[in-house]
Structure prediction request, 204 residues.
Amino acid sequence: MFITLEGIDGSGKSTQAELLTENIRSARGEEGVIWTKEPGGWPGGDSLRKVLLEGSLHHPLTEVFLFLADRCEHVEQVILPALAAGKIVVCERYSDSTVAYQWGGRGIERGKIEGLLSWASFPSPDITFWIDLPAEKAYDRMVSRGSPRDRLESEGLSFLSRVRQGFCTLAEENPDRIVPVDGDGRADLIASEIYRKVEEYFFP
Ligand code: TMP
Prediction:
């Protein structure tokens, strides 16, 4: 069972990934679930994460190729083995982020990005929670926590708005997979809403 969480920076996605993992652990035991993230969620992946978030990258395609290279190792070393062992995988960010950020945010041709994603044959998530928050609110949250902290967060509000629009488009096009969740509320209530959907979906 492969669950992904998506959203713009500052949407509260990391908190929700952590709470969802805890909820699944409480219900199904410590060994039944793993929580992982992109970029960098594989052994040795920290160095690639550092280049992606802090490196001085000039060519727009470098970012696309590095996110995809990161995903190749993440899928091969972490996601597929965990799924094969029957675990639930909770993954923070995945291919929807590549479309929303590199197409929506950066303006790289969508067909090219999707061509690369389909060539890579990454496993598709069973369900994706898109934690949605207006870009202005997410941006204010980032600023109040002392950000921008990295290269992509430094892109500013209009970039974040375009990325959010990218996620909106993806959610509209994939209503069977992507569940939009209102991220503007108490974290524990949002977590309960997400966990209820997971239970309905996986343990009907
Ligand atoms: P985060 O770990 O704080 O979410 O930071 C990861 C950043 O990388 C975030 O700004 C989103 C960005 N990103 C992309 O632009 N494309 C991708 O494919 C992925 C996985 C992340």
Notes: The chain has one domain: 2-202.
